[in-house]
Design goal:
Length: 293
């Protein structure tokens, strides 16, 4: 099992590269569109995303659940990866998301149209997707993507069952107002594990003390960290592969298929400790820079 000592600053900055969008042309990191051959993460979950932008395909035995379709540019690649695993697009019955930023849902409109799947999203992120990403509390209209209206609303604690798989939604707002993390029982060689697919908890250039359209952002982040740290977690997945050492884990899995490096309970603790520290440091920096009354 590989040990990732820390989540690198470079990985976090890469995931938040779009924060410069409002100041100039949007620069997409190369690994956001670099193809990756699909591979099994657990018995029922396959990775079908790019090198850094994650998309997860869950085989329930009675159809497929797809979580996140990152960027419109990647939609065709994800469809190819689904086919490479021996599935047809019509096998996809449900599409879920972690959060409604363009780099995680920009391709949803095409996949929903091509699969006929039901799109289920939290109310606040669903509204953002229906607006094509426009009207974001921080980015405004700068990070737009193809509009897509959800077919149903996801609420906190809701269980979504298809075939042999049940996913539980945990609303963990902050990064977006409707950020949604997911838990389920996954299996590795038939052995059950607690799996947590976290929504992002990074703070990509936000003004924590001054977001007029999101006045409770600080309280939401704090509540979300509390929720996420309390969830059982043997396997951590995330919207960005760099957050979980995906490249290294993929290589280790290929080198030794008998040992699954994604089973890594310690990573769960390190991940949330890192991002909570980053949040607290950003808040402390803003407080220190705040003019005296």
């Amino acid at each position: 099992m590989i040990a990732i000592a820390r989540i690198s600053k470079a990985a976090v900055l890469g995931a938040a590269a779009f924060l410069f969008a409002a100041a100039g042309p949007l620069e997409i990191p190369a690994n956001w569109t670099t193809p990756v051959a699909p591979f099994a993460v657990t018995d029922e979950i396959a990775y079908v995303g790019t090198e850094d932008l994650a998309s997860y395909l869950i085989d329930t035995g009675s159809g497929l659940i797809l979580i996140d379709v990152p960027m419109a540019e990647n939609a065709a690649l994800i469809e190819q990866n689904i086919a490479a695993l021996g599935h047809t697009l019509s096998d996809v019955k449900i599409i879920l998301i972690t959060h409604a930023h363009f780099d995680h849902v920009g391709g949803v409109a095409k996949l929903r149209a091509d699969t006929g799947a039901r799109l289920l999203v939290s109310a606040r992120d669903g509204a953002l997707m229906a607006a094509g990403g426009k009207g974001d509390f921080h980015w405004g209209d700068a990070l737009a993507y193809p509009t897509v209206a959800p077919d149903g609303e996801v609420i906190d604690g809701q269980k979504i069952t298809l075939g042999a798989v049940t996913l539980t939604a945990h609303l963990t707002p902050g990064h977006t107002k409707g950020c949604t993390s997911w838990t389920m029982t996954a299996h590795v060689k038939g052995k059950p594990y607690n799996l947590l697919l976290t929504c992002s908890t990074s703070v990509p250039g936000y003004n924590l003390l001054n977001e007029p359209q999101y006045p409770n952002i600080i309280a939401d982040y704090r509540a979300s960290f509390k929720t996420l740290k309390a969830l059982p977690c043997d396997i951590l997945l995330a919207p960005h592969g760099s957050f979980i050492g995906l490249t290294e884990k993929r290589a280790a899995l290929k080198a030794n298929p008998d040992t699954n490096p994604f089973v890594d309970p310690a990573l769960c603790k390190r991940h949330f400790a890192y991002f909570e520290d980053a949040f607290n440091n950003e808040l402390a920096k803003e407080l220190a820079a705040k003019p005296a009354p």
